[in-house]
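Hello support,

Our group uses your service weekly, and this is the first time we've seen a run hang past the timeout. The protein is Sec-independent protein translocase protein TatA. I'm not sure whether the cause is the sequence or the server load. Input pasted verbatim:
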Amino acid sequence: MLGQIGVPGLILILVIALVVFGPSKLPEVGKAVGSSLREFKKATSDLTSTDSEDSKKIDQNQNQDKNA
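Update from on-call engineer: The timeout came from a worker crash unrelated to the input. Re-ran successfully.
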């Protein structure tokens, strides 16, 4: 997603954010966005690891059923 946004796009986004939120609120907004992204990445990695563990258990159960 961010790979498709170039430098001019980032500058435009920053200018719009500056106009909308003002210079005093911009650090607070940046901090909130950063922490939200961090939580999202953590949740997706937890889901991915849980999914991987579940599929390993399913594979093991299927192998045990075939061998029995």
